[in-house]
Amino acid sequence: MTKYDAIIIGSGFGGSMMAHQLVNAGMKVLMLERGGWVDRGPQNWSMAGSIDLTEHYDKTTPLKVVAGGNKKQMGLYACVGGPSVFYGGVSFRFREKDFEKNEAITNGSGATWPFRYHDIEPYYEKAEQLLNISGEAGTDPTEPPRNNGFPQKPAPLAGISQKVKNGAESLGLRPFQLPLAINYQENGRSACQHCMTCDTYACAISAKNDLATMVLPILLEKGLELKPDTVVTRLVAKNGRIAAVECVSKEKGERQSFSAGQVILSAGAMASPHLLLSSGLQELNPGGQVVGRYLMRHVNAIIFGIFPGVADKEGRFHKQLAILDYYFGHPGSSGTLGKLGSLQQVPTPPMGLVQNEIPGVVGKMLSQGVRLLTGLLAIAEDQPQFSNAISIDAHHKDVYGMLQPVISHHYSKRDLAAVGVLIKEGKKIMSKAGALAHYVHHIRTFSHAVGTVRMGADPATSALDERCQFRGVDNLYVVDGSFMPTSAALNPSLTIAANALRVGEGLVS
Ligand SMILES: Cc1cc2nc3c(=O)[nH]c(=O)nc-3n(C[C@H](O)[C@H](O)[C@H](O)COP(=O)(O)OP(=O)(O)OC[C@H]3O[C@@H](n4cnc5c(N)ncnc54)[C@H](O)[C@@H]3O)c2cc1C
Ligand code: SF4
Question: Which of 146, 293, 343, 474 yields a CA-CA distance of 20 to 30 A from 404?
Fold first, then answer.
């Protein structure tokens, strides 16, 4: 049997960035990934190319949603590169204060980051380089200090983006260009064609800088061994170490078991706690009762402006602006809310996406009038609450023999009040940009799920130490979004990537 130095479970942000560190240090690494490669071509532009409508929305381990969510049963986003292949590419660094204690957010939950922004800054820079992020330093009013600029300049603004910018500026706000994982350069790769299917779609021409495009192919050439369509079903512990990683091939149903010196769990903030709990590993951890708890997912809502005519006359990609003036609060809102969150432009949605997201008559009606819409996404920070959790139902098993995961999530009053303030301000901006009316769509998915196997200095309230080692199991690390003590109010992927680079460097030095 092949001897591996490390096994990585999951090829998303945490897994791929960890693989980057380990493979480049000369380690023999096996990566086990539940999904397959996503084919690229014109089909990605079709109505059925949106992630939930593809085979990469994997329903073979149904997650039962007892509270929260948009469906009673949810699937998992499973493919090589994880949801990065379908994501929106927004690549923010968290702010300095996001790493500091803020009781208005943590609310007695004991959530604390065991490091500060300056500790992770070099890894943010490295992640931005690896993903060739476009952006403009010095324009974001809440931007944390950075040692260097972005690897790439952003694209010029579309006409509708300019209108939104003017609208925001007329209200005294400071809009700036979103940092995006999109290739705009003529550099031997396809440059972005500014199409209208980006967020939730794979890029037909591979101009999106996802992990399956930018990171994994290089690592495969350097010796990374990747097994796609392979579901890890159990981690077997012996004498305080993971002695075996059990998995099943989705195609053949063949069961296999692998072992390695280090095991890196990076299956995402839903699947990682599920795997830990169904393997019984919480029993070995002094903070085991928190495994699966403190699930956060941001409070996300889209404020669509309804325009008197076609909103985006050029028919061009226009997810370009961010407005962070209310990130740390709003002068008119109650002082107890504290940090609020971000507003980010979202483009006119493709018709298929509207029908999928908003079922029933409203969705059908809106999809007809979709060309009149463009919007802003409000992302509010949510509080880590012990009661928001992924647990397991011992009475039901999936097709692989794993116990069924169960999700229960409620927003707190503060979470909802925070997004309410952002929605109100978003409406004002859209009106100034020319919208006659508004429609607010509340997003109930778990696409920004984090926090379920959190990191912290206190072994009683956090399952991972500051190196993301799972306490009680010497050779097990968790580096997907589960590690986050708080969610901040910005898209999580770059922070997950940077943290995995940080933890990976610690493992090889
Ligand atoms: C449509 C969409 C748009 C998004 N847009 C943005 C954005 O613009 N910016 C941003 O920052 N974030 C965005 N996100 C969120 C972002 O994609 C996630 O935060 C991020 O991918 C999480 O990274 P991760 O490493 O925690 O896990 P993931 O990237 O989810 O990776 C987990 C991997 O583990 C695999 N896996 C799961 N279970 C098993 C198992 N049992 N065995 C083997 N493999 C397994 C999965 O298939 C997956 O590939 C978006 C998400 C979605 C769905
Ligand atoms: S907007 Fe650009 S990066 Fe996004 S899918 Fe279209 S071509 Fe690809």
Answer: 474
Domain range annotation of the chain: 4-508
Mean predicted confidence (pLDDT) in 293-322: 96
Segment 318-343, tens digit of pLDDT: 999 999 999 999 887 766 788 999 99
Query: Does residue 411 contact residue 425 with C-beta atoms inside 8 Å?
Result: no
Q: Which bound ligand lies closest to the C-alpha atom of 190?
A: 2
* Residues whose beta carbon lies within 6 Å of some atom of ligand 1: 9-14, 32-35, 51, 76-78, 82-84, 86-90, 199-200, 231-232, 266-269, 271, 275, 447-448, 480-481, 491-493, 496
Whether ligand 2 lies within 6 angstroms of the CB of 479 is answered as no
CB-side neighbour CA atoms (13 Å) of 270: 24
SS3 21: helix
pLDDT digits (tens, 9 = 90+) for 170-184: 999 999 999 999 999
Question: How far apart (Å, rounded) are the C-alpha atoms in residues 3 and 452?
Answer: 31
| Cβ 300 vs Cβ 381: under 8 Å | no
In terms of Cβ atoms closer than 10 Å to its own Cβ (0-12, 13-18, 19+), residue 221 is exposed
Do residues 40 and 202 touch, judged by C-beta distance below 8 A?
yes
pLDDT of residue 41: 95
Task: Report the predicted TM-score, pTM, of the whole model to 2 decimal places.
Answer: 0.97
Residue 182, ligand 2, Cβ within 6 A: yes
Q: Minimal CA–CA distance to 475: which of 277, 275, 259?
A: 259
- Report the atom number in ligand 2 closest to the C-alpha of 206: 8
Q: Distance, CA 439 to ligand 2 centroid (Å)?
A: 26
Give pLDDT tens digits for 154-164.
Answer: 999 999 999 99
Tell the CATH superfamily of the 4-508 domain: FAD/NAD(P)-binding domain (3.50.50.60)
* Percent above pLDDT 70 for the chain: 98
